[in-house]
Protein backbone atom coordinates (compact mmCIF):
# COMPACT_ATOMS: atom_id res chain seq x y z
CA UNK A 1 0.00 0.00 0.00
CA UNK A 2 1.13 3.49 -0.79
CA UNK A 3 0.31 6.40 1.55
CA UNK A 4 0.49 10.06 0.52
CA UNK A 5 -0.76 13.14 2.34
CA UNK A 6 -1.86 16.75 2.14
CA UNK A 7 -2.35 19.23 4.99
CA UNK A 8 -5.76 20.94 4.91
CA UNK A 9 -7.78 23.59 6.69
CA UNK A 10 -7.20 26.12 9.44
CA UNK A 11 -6.23 23.41 11.95
CA UNK A 12 -3.67 21.85 9.58
CA UNK A 13 -5.34 18.44 9.41
CA UNK A 14 -3.43 15.71 7.62
CA UNK A 15 -5.54 14.03 4.95
CA UNK A 16 -4.19 10.71 3.66
CA UNK A 17 -4.66 8.83 0.43
CA UNK A 18 -4.07 5.09 0.75
CA UNK A 19 -3.69 3.33 -2.57
CA UNK A 20 -4.27 -0.39 -2.35
CA UNK A 21 -4.09 -2.96 -5.10
CA UNK A 22 -7.70 -2.44 -6.16
CA UNK A 23 -9.10 0.56 -4.26
CA UNK A 24 -8.19 4.02 -3.03
CA UNK A 25 -9.09 5.22 0.47
CA UNK A 26 -9.16 8.90 1.47
CA UNK A 27 -8.76 9.42 5.22
CA UNK A 28 -9.94 12.53 7.11
CA UNK A 29 -10.72 14.93 4.25
CA UNK A 30 -10.84 18.10 6.35
CA UNK A 31 -12.44 20.48 3.90
CA UNK A 32 -13.53 20.67 0.26
CA UNK A 33 -10.72 22.88 -1.01
CA UNK A 34 -8.61 23.44 -4.09
CA UNK A 35 -5.73 21.80 -2.21
CA UNK A 36 -7.76 18.64 -1.66
CA UNK A 37 -8.97 18.37 -5.25
CA UNK A 38 -5.48 19.11 -6.59
CA UNK A 39 -4.07 16.42 -4.28
CA UNK A 40 -6.59 13.87 -5.56
CA UNK A 41 -6.11 14.91 -9.17
CA UNK A 42 -7.60 12.47 -11.64
CA UNK A 43 -7.41 9.50 -9.25
CA UNK A 44 -10.77 8.00 -8.39
CA UNK A 45 -11.57 7.61 -4.70
CA UNK A 46 -13.56 4.55 -3.62
CA UNK A 47 -13.81 5.00 0.14
CA UNK A 48 -13.63 7.86 2.64
CA UNK A 49 -12.72 6.87 6.22
CA UNK A 50 -13.11 9.26 9.13
CA UNK A 51 -10.78 8.41 12.03
CA UNK A 52 -13.17 10.31 14.29
CA UNK A 53 -16.07 12.71 14.00
CA UNK A 54 -14.50 16.05 14.93
CA UNK A 55 -15.24 18.90 12.54
CA UNK A 56 -11.64 19.34 11.42
CA UNK A 57 -11.52 15.80 9.98
CA UNK A 58 -14.86 15.48 8.22
CA UNK A 59 -15.58 18.58 6.12
CA UNK A 60 -15.19 17.01 2.68
CA UNK A 61 -16.53 13.53 3.45
CA UNK A 62 -19.31 13.93 0.91
CA UNK A 63 -17.57 16.30 -1.51
CA UNK A 64 -16.68 13.44 -3.86
CA UNK A 65 -19.12 11.51 -6.01
CA UNK A 66 -19.75 7.80 -5.63
CA UNK A 67 -17.68 7.16 -2.51
CA UNK A 68 -18.48 4.93 0.42
CA UNK A 69 -18.14 6.86 3.72
CA UNK A 70 -17.08 4.89 6.81
CA UNK A 71 -16.55 5.69 10.49
CA UNK A 72 -17.14 4.25 13.96
CA UNK A 73 -20.74 4.67 15.09
CA UNK A 74 -19.77 6.05 18.52
CA UNK A 75 -18.72 9.34 16.88
CA UNK A 76 -21.96 9.86 14.97
CA UNK A 77 -23.16 12.55 17.46
CA UNK A 78 -20.15 14.73 16.56
CA UNK A 79 -20.91 14.36 12.88
CA UNK A 80 -24.59 15.12 13.47
CA UNK A 81 -23.63 18.29 15.36
CA UNK A 82 -21.14 19.53 12.75
CA UNK A 83 -23.24 18.58 9.70
CA UNK A 84 -26.88 18.00 10.75
CA UNK A 85 -28.00 17.30 7.19
CA UNK A 86 -25.17 14.92 6.26
CA UNK A 87 -25.96 11.93 4.05
CA UNK A 88 -26.06 8.57 5.80
CA UNK A 89 -22.86 6.76 6.72
CA UNK A 90 -22.44 3.83 4.34
CA UNK A 91 -20.63 1.56 6.78
CA UNK A 92 -19.91 1.70 10.48
CA UNK A 93 -16.49 0.35 11.36
CA UNK A 94 -15.63 -1.79 14.37
CA UNK A 95 -12.54 -3.38 15.85
CA UNK A 96 -10.95 -5.82 13.41
CA UNK A 97 -12.90 -4.76 10.33
CA UNK A 98 -11.02 -4.73 7.05
CA UNK A 99 -11.53 -1.55 5.00
CA UNK A 100 -9.63 -2.91 2.00
CA UNK A 101 -7.32 -5.92 1.73
CA UNK A 102 -4.63 -5.53 4.38
CA UNK A 103 -6.04 -2.37 6.03
CA UNK A 104 -7.63 -3.16 9.39
CA UNK A 105 -9.44 -1.10 12.01
CA UNK A 106 -8.33 -0.74 15.62
CA UNK A 107 -10.91 0.93 17.87
CA UNK A 108 -8.91 3.39 19.98
CA UNK A 109 -11.24 5.53 22.12
CA UNK A 110 -9.89 8.35 24.25
CA UNK A 111 -9.71 11.41 22.03
CA UNK A 112 -13.33 10.61 21.18
CA UNK A 113 -15.49 7.53 21.81
CA UNK A 114 -15.31 6.38 18.19
CA UNK A 115 -11.68 7.12 17.39
CA UNK A 116 -10.05 4.50 15.19
CA UNK A 117 -6.60 3.67 13.86
CA UNK A 118 -6.09 2.14 10.42
CA UNK A 119 -3.33 -0.47 10.42
CA UNK A 120 -1.51 -2.15 7.59
CA UNK A 121 1.75 -4.04 7.72
CA UNK A 122 4.10 -1.04 7.89
CA UNK A 123 1.81 1.92 8.62
CA UNK A 124 -0.57 3.26 11.25
CA UNK A 125 -2.98 6.06 10.35
CA UNK A 126 -3.73 7.20 13.90
CA UNK A 127 -6.02 10.23 13.63
CA UNK A 128 -5.70 12.29 16.80
CA UNK A 129 -4.59 9.43 19.06
CA UNK A 130 -0.84 9.97 18.78
CA UNK A 131 1.36 12.79 17.51
CA UNK A 132 5.10 13.24 17.34
CA UNK A 133 6.07 13.46 21.03
CA UNK A 134 2.50 14.16 22.08
CA UNK A 135 -1.05 12.78 22.05
CA UNK A 136 -4.54 13.96 21.18
CA UNK A 137 -6.59 16.00 23.59
CA UNK A 138 -8.96 14.34 26.04
CA UNK A 139 -10.53 17.54 27.39
CA UNK A 140 -12.98 17.92 24.50
CA UNK A 141 -16.54 16.51 24.62
CA UNK A 142 -16.34 12.72 24.52
CA UNK A 143 -12.70 12.64 25.58
CA UNK A 144 -11.74 10.05 28.18
CA UNK A 145 -8.23 10.06 29.71
CA UNK A 146 -8.39 6.45 30.96
CA UNK A 147 -9.56 5.22 27.57
CA UNK A 148 -6.75 7.20 25.94
CA UNK A 149 -4.22 5.49 28.21
CA UNK A 150 -5.56 2.05 27.26
CA UNK A 151 -5.57 2.90 23.56
CA UNK A 152 -2.02 4.26 23.70
CA UNK A 153 -0.94 1.11 25.52
CA UNK A 154 -2.40 -1.05 22.75
CA UNK A 155 -0.57 0.93 20.08
CA UNK A 156 2.71 0.96 22.01
CA UNK A 157 2.60 -2.84 22.27
CA UNK A 158 2.22 -3.44 18.54
CA UNK A 159 5.08 -5.35 16.98
CA UNK A 160 7.56 -3.78 14.60
CA UNK A 161 8.25 -0.18 13.77
CA UNK A 162 5.45 1.04 11.52
CA UNK A 163 5.35 4.59 10.21
CA UNK A 164 2.88 6.66 12.24
CA UNK A 165 0.70 9.00 10.18
CA UNK A 166 -0.97 11.42 12.64
CA UNK A 167 -3.99 13.64 12.20
CA UNK A 168 -1.84 16.74 12.70
CA UNK A 169 1.90 17.38 12.52
CA UNK A 170 4.78 15.40 11.09
CA UNK A 171 4.99 11.71 10.39
CA UNK A 172 6.99 9.69 12.88
CA UNK A 173 7.61 6.01 13.67
CA UNK A 174 6.25 3.88 16.46
CA UNK A 175 9.75 3.06 17.70
CA UNK A 176 10.66 6.77 17.86
CA UNK A 177 7.52 7.46 19.87
CA UNK A 178 8.25 4.55 22.22
CA UNK A 179 11.67 6.14 22.85
CA UNK A 180 10.77 9.83 23.03
CA UNK A 181 7.06 10.41 23.59
CA UNK A 182 6.53 11.26 27.27
CA UNK A 183 2.99 9.88 27.19
CA UNK A 184 4.18 6.49 25.97
CA UNK A 185 7.11 6.50 28.38
CA UNK A 186 4.64 6.88 31.28
CA UNK A 187 2.69 3.74 30.34
Please state the overall shape, judged from the principal axes of the Cα atoms: globular
Distance between the termini: 31 Å
Number of E-state strands: 14
Query: Widest sheet: strand order?
Result: 1-2-3-4-5-6
Mean pLDDT figure = 97
- Stretches where pLDDT is under 50 for at least 5 consecutive residues are none
Work out the oligomeric state of the chains in this entry.
single chain
- Tell me the radius of gyration: 15 Å
Largest sheet: 6 strands, mixed
The name CATH uses for the topology is Metallo-beta-lactamase, Chain A
Number of helices, where a helix is a run of at least 4 consecutive DSSP H or I residues: 5
**Name of the CATH architecture:** 4-Layer Sandwich
Order of helices and strands: EEEHEEHEEEEEEEHEEHH
CATH class wording: Alpha Beta
Indicate the percent of residues in helices. Answer: 10-25%
Q: Which secondary-structure class do the elements indicate?
A: alpha/beta
Strand content: 25-35%
Tally of individual domains: 1
CATH H-level homologous superfamily name: Ribonuclease Z/Hydroxyacylglutathione hydrolase-like
Amino acid sequence: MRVSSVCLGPLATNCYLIEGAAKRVLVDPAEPSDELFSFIGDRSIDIVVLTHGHFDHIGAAWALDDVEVMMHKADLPFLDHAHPDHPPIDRYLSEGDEVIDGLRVLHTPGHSPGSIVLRCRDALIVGDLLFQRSIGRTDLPGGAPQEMQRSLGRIAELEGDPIVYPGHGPTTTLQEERRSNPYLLML
